[in-house]
Known about the structure:
Elements: H1 14-25, H2 30-38, H3 53-58, H4 68-74, H5 78-81, H6 87-98, H7 103-108, E1 121-124, H8 126-136, E2 161-166, H9 179-187, H10 197-214, H11 223-236, H12 248-258, H13 261-267, H14 279-285, H15 293-302, H16 307-311, E3 325-326, E4 338-340, E5 342-347, E6 355-360, E7 366-370, E8 384-387, H17 389-400, H18 407-414, H19 418-427, H20 458-474, H21 480-486, H22 488-497, H23 499-504, H24 522-541, H25 552-559, H26 562-567, H27 573-582, H28 586-603, H29 610-617, H30 628-642
Antiparallel strand pairs: 1-2, 3-4, 5-6, 6-7, 7-8
Helix pairs in contact: 18-19, 20-22, 21-22, 24-25, 24-27, 28-29, 28-30
Amino acid sequence: MICCWPDPYPDELFYSICARFSERLQYQNRRSVVEELFGTGSAIACVSLPSHLDYFITQLPQYCSLNVHRILDEHTLLPYFAPFLPPERHSRLRQDMRGDNGPAVHMRAGLMASRVPLPQWLRFCSQCVEEDLSKYGECYWHRIHQVPGVEVCPLHKTWVKNSSARARNVKTRYEFISAESAIKESLLKTEQFQRNKQMFEILFALTLDAQWLLNQRNLSQDLKLLQRRYHWRLVDLGLSTYRGRVDRSALLSKFKNMYAPELLNLLQCELDDRTGDNWLERLARKPDSAQHPLHHLLLIHCLEQTAETFFRLPTEDIPFGIGPWPCLNPACVHYLEPEVKLCKVTYSSFVSGKPIGTFSCECGFIYSRTGPDTSAEDRWKRGRIDAFGPVWERKLGQLWANEMLSLRAIARELDVDPLTIKRQAARMRLSFPRPVRKSSPLNEARQLSPQRKRTPEKEKIESQRAVWITTMQNHPGIGIKALRSMVPGIYTWLYRNDPVWLKEHRPLSITRNKQRNSLVDWSGRDQQLAELVEASAKRLRNTSGKPSRISLSAIGRDIGQLSLLQQHLGKLPMTAQRLETLVETREAFAIRRLEWTAEQFRQAYIIPKRYELIKKAGIERIASEYPVRTILDETMKSFQIAT
């Protein structure tokens, strides 16, 4: 049973509480501390995510108010990682920390596979130390200062410093080192940080986000919800289509404009934007696997959000807001009232893929519009009418039979154009012609004599044709536009009265090739690109590690000329010919992967089975095709000969 357990301070690390306890009791053997606290000498004094907590709770004195959930949520770094882990994985991580499965903790949190390491040293803020000494008579390790990526104290907006105590050390893995003993010497040191103000403000904003995350409970959620938030935010900023196609170049440009390389190096979150498979693009396209929280926070800030505002973003697909929506049927008693409860969202087939909302009212009136809604007024807009419904049709029948109403008056009443009224009336088989308003007859003096359309006399036609032919013969090579301007009256008369003949007697169009001096030396560019393409293919082929396919896209990205190769390859014959010989076919790439994988097995002194070699090389779909099958057979024989 543990006696005299110290009360935890605000935001104190569990490691720090154990260190203060150890220092007070002055244990002779450092392993004795972990044995008494956790019931085993193999437990490690872990700074970030400790384990064996269930056993620890059973050893506390009765007066102690600590419980395992309070330790996990208030005195470890678990809340910092939890929001970016699936609920099932978060739950298993909590169980591992409560139990004795310590080695699995860091793996389940994603720290083993992450390139962002935990801090190497226990860290502190000088002003926090002074305030702690004044308020409590001793200082302690603050949880926020140990979070990866936190370089600034959120309370005092000053740089955090490294103490003399290592956070991870084989020699001190069983030892709890108190802030009192590790900070004394470090306080004498003065550290000068020469960094610009913008960089400092970004780091401070990341610290505030980390602090907000540490204070949240039960924020773990399905990664699909994260994906939806990212998707809608990317759409709002014009960095993605509604169908989820992310504008890679625009996102990278925005990210690089916000974060300097020096900052990314400090946080160990560098980007390799040449491969097309860096952490930023994976996160923006489809965050279907857990990534380090610092990666998420950097992307969240790039999307002009904080952690708090980001997690409050809606995850549902509501481009037209929340219903009910107004009925826009002028013939309905619920006109302009929120009576539409059904809105079906589809997406345009164009590249933009904008959402299209189809709103169906109980009165039968169905209308649609392209979204998303950007203001409250958009709810009252109607794009296209898909169905008018019986209420609207009944109203049209009544108005159609009203002799006092004109066609335009009916159109205004039903909020459509007159042509729509005619078409719907014809569809409904209403009477034609419709009854019209009766008016008093005109007296004989005001009446107009009936006019008949007369056929032009033959002599008139011949004379007009002759003038047109003569003008055209006197000006050979002239175009139709210039000829019209010479005899405008003749052309107009023939166009109205003799259009077929006029069409057959038009001047021949003359195509004038306008030579334009090309601003681009395509020949010189072609020669230069051909050399770059060949060098790039050689470089990609000789790159160490797992082979990647040598394709036009890979070469274009490598030399920074992808759009040029995709859009203007027809103007680059030498480059096109060189690419034809350099770009790998599926079979050639499969053989190269096969040979590389076989070499990996040889270096490891492993003789693989055939299916193991195929699976490791990733050639399952093409392994049976010639010549991949032939090379595979020869490779397997080489392993047998070697034995």
